[in-house]
Amino acid sequence: xxxxxxxxxxxxxxxxxxxxxxxxxxxxxxxxxxxxxxxxxxx
Amino acid sequence: xxxxxxxxxxxxxxxxxxxxxxxxxxxxxxxxxxxxxxxxxxxxxxxxxxxxxxxxxxxxxxxxxxxxxxxxxxxxxxxxxxxxxxxxxxxxxxxxxxxxxxxxxxxxxxxxxxxxxxxxxxxxxxxxxxxxxxxxxxxxxxxxxxxxxxxxxxxxxxxxxxxxxxxxxxxxxxxxxxxxxxxxxxxxxxxxxxxxxxxxxxxxxxxxxxxxxxxxxxxxxxxxxxxxxxxxxxxxxxxxxxxxxxxxxxxxxxxxxxxxxxxxxxxxxxxxxxxxxxxxxxxxxxxxxxxxxxxxxxxxxxxxxxxxxxxxxxxxxxxxxxxxxxxxxxxxxxxxxxxxxxxxxxxxxxxxxxxxxxxxxxxxxxxxxxxxxxxxxxxxxxxxxxxxxxxxxxxxxxxxxxxxxxxxxxxxxxxxxxxxxxxxxxxxxxxxxxxxxxxxxxxxxxxxxxxxxxxxxxxxxxxxxxxxxxxxxxxxxxxxxxxxxxxxxxxxxxxxxxxxxxxxxxxxxxxxxxxxxxxxxxxxxxxxxxxxxxxxxxxxxxxxxxxxxxxxxxxxxxxxxxxxxxxxx
Lengths: 43, 569
Known about the structure:
The complex is a heterodimer. Chain A is mostly helical.
């Protein structure tokens, strides 16, 4: 049961790299927000 | 519970079963039933991976932890994105590319049958037990909240899950996971929105008060092996745990074996890497929000209604006196919190905050007394962290939203259990039945026994659930079960990627790793369980390499009897 046509290899790799970059960016933002929360309101 | 909420819960359960059966198309072969003919898109697999990890324990235990202990638990997940990236470039291509049904099948290709069988057996042992605790967590809470026997609550979760998992296989499981994940996130966001709307003070004031109690300390940089939740524990121990869970645990490996290609499998893992920490932080902050809400609206002294009833029946006078003190101190604490929020200057705020903290300590003392009383009366562990959020949802959320929350708890439970049942059945059939009992049977025969195995594991999990109910903090129980074997199994897979490693080294390395973890568990209990993953993995690799030195190369034995590995491709 295929939902949509499978992407070609180059396209899939490019998407993986893009997603990887976004993952790292989101983690940095998330950790920065948690750190800001701790610095502003923590003990 | 209001009838509208019940309707929502019933409609959800029926929908999951019907939709699961509809999704059974194409699962009339073993490859369809176990790996969906490798046909699923990366985002479906990615959400399925997330939903599998996010159990009902996360839905009810984690916000409870946020309410009582703050957000430091988020550090537990710091290693997850790192692990996902490592897996994307290491184990995923190995496993997806080798065309196996189970991760352990690959170990026979690489090493030998005894290493495969031992790791598969350890998986069945640990996951079989954890499937029970995963049903038990919501089962116990729903049973106490609604006053129904535990067996009914377990059946409410277990029976629909077994039906759609048995009929639709991995495809039904993955698609149900997607919808369940949406429902879970919606329920959490809705609770957060309600908290923000109903909080009597501004969010900034609420955060200041929560911060004063230490609940907003997300980071603990101390390098203390006895502390479970520290930055280093999360980054190092957490990375090893997540590498092992996502890289070697069949309940997760089977998710990305359904992806259409190696690259799609990698991308699916990155969905978790992307969202896990923000989502976990949100869930913990919901808990902190509930804690703050209860500064202004009086919460019950005991959150477990069954224990509350038992204590009122057995120790009416003593509990009544405790309740009176609690009401008094609550009023004072509430006033101090409001004063701190509205303070016109720093000095007034400091004084009000100190008053608030003193009253908060007093409240905690009274609660400790009440919990001790409940433990004496019921003879059971009275910790009620898992009851805080369900009690809040049912008493404070608007009609309809409470039903969505309960449906979300069921969804979280079902999405994890279905993946576990599916993977337990796969391992039982592929790594044991087809490998050792009936190597030459037809696909139709294996499919039939696979469905039987799903039902067997479903029943087993339900039976374990009725006993696991008496275990302490359920969230830790599940993680402890995993940590006992996880690190060592990861070590075997790491060895598999080292060209010089041999089967003898892998097998005895695994035994050495587990022995050392057992030693630390029982003899050095001060070392937090997250570090057991590091100890296990490093020991297996070190001992495995040592024993592999100078050994003969392993025979390139066929992976399994009957349909050879590679069938799926």
